Amino acid sequence: MATTITITGAGGQIGYALLFRIAAGDMLGQDEKVRLRLLEIPQGLKAAEGAALELQDCAFDLLESVEVTDDAATGFDSCNLALLVGARPRGPGMERADLLAANAGIFGPQGAAIAGSAASDVRVTVVGNPANTNALIAAASADGIPPERFTALTRLDENRARAQLAAALDAPVSAIRRVPIWGNHSATQFPDVTHATVDGRPVLEALAERVDDVEAWLEQTFIPRVAKRGAEIIEVRGSSSVASAANATIEHTRDWVHGTDDWTSAGVVSNGEYGVPAGLVSSFPVRSVDGRWQIVEGLELSAWARGRIDASVAELVAERDAVRALGVL
Ligand code: NAD
Ligand code: LMR
């Protein structure tokens, strides 16, 4: 058997960083063959076709086939995993509402096409921004597919948070665990260190030995650094994160398929957990068990954490309402 994986926006930057790693087995392992479907818009077809030629030239043992198309029904036909990367970027003078409208025009039809032609076990990871609301739109447009199969990528934010803590504590990144992201993949997100550990010891305790005022450090240094890292990368590189985003997409999807031994973060459809309105796609601490994301429940939230989560969730509600006003949901 082989897994069929559809990558939208495959001719773009993240697509180029994803394809070769997937074909090399980084996502599903060395025992799983893959069939790649590269879905683009007409302007992106040449770039995707070029990537397909290079995939051929790699002679990957695990790669069974590569198809390039600009037709969504063909692109999602029988796919088991859909990585929705292609999105409309914010252009000069474009308001948030314009961006939401443009992306609703992409993710609505793609959700419908997934419902129409994907395999019955399809799992969808939305990367294209605004990722949470795009996932919500796709899920709402995919009649007959359980909403839990639609997720938004917040693993990159978690990886950024773990890396910043590792640097601050002068510890290897592998020693840092349980740093969930709550809310939206945006500057309002809440990277939460309350339950984080470094080599099994509470991060808050370790931080107290290194910084004078832990709360001030979290508010003024750590959280803004993580939440605005996307903007920092854009400023320094001149374009948005690519390899780190592709890496996080691979880790998210690998963990969804193969399971986790601890918490991680993913944007998943809320069933009202932690007071997040049902139906919103919000990031939560999650585990992957038997091929499903499970929200880690029962965590105590301080008033400060609660306020931070509520602020990010309010942004998700506003995005959902803006999309509803367009008549999309
Ligand atoms: P890019 O502009 O290099 O590539 C986007 C590609 O999508 C283009 O080739 C374009 O032709 C294609 N595309 C546009 N509309 C499409 C459609 N309807 N169907 C299929 N393909 C379509 O951009 P990139 O650097 O690859 O980034 C892609 C998206 O990922 C952006 O929205 C970016 O903001 C987002 N992103 C998300 C995260 C995250 O953590 N969630 C991180 C980094 C980037
Ligand atoms: C990122 O987090 O790097 C991307 O979502 C790009 C952005 O606009 O922040």
From TrEMBL:
GO terms for biological process: malate metabolic process; tricarboxylic acid cycle. The active site is at H185. Its EC number is 1.1.1.37. It catalyses: (S)-malate + NAD(+) = oxaloacetate + NADH + H(+). NAD(+) binds at G9, A10, G11, G12, Q13, I14, G15, N103, Q110, V127, G128, N129. Transmembrane segments: none annotated. Substrate binds at R90, R96, N129, R160. InterPro entries: L-lactate/malate_DH, Lactate/malate_DH_C, Lactate/malate_DH_N, Lactate_DH/Glyco_Ohase_4_C, Malate_DH_AS, Malate_DH_type2, NAD(P)-bd_dom_sf. Pfam families: Ldh_1_C, Ldh_1_N. The keyword DNA damage does not apply. Gene3D superfamilies: Lactate dehydrogenase/glycoside hydrolase, family 4, C-terminal, NAD(P)-binding Rossmann-like Domain. Residues 154-322 form the Lactate/malate dehydrogenase C-terminal domain. One of its GO terms (molecular function) is L-malate dehydrogenase (NAD+) activity. Keywords: NAD, Oxidoreductase, Tricarboxylic acid cycle. It is an enzyme of class 1 (oxidoreductase). Residues 5-144 form the Lactate/malate dehydrogenase N-terminal domain. PROSITE patterns: MDH. HAMAP family: Malate_dehydrog_2 (MF_01517). Catalyzes the reversible oxidation of malate to oxaloacetate. Belongs to the LDH/MDH superfamily. MDH type 2 family. This is Malate dehydrogenase. It comes from Microbacterium tenebrionis.
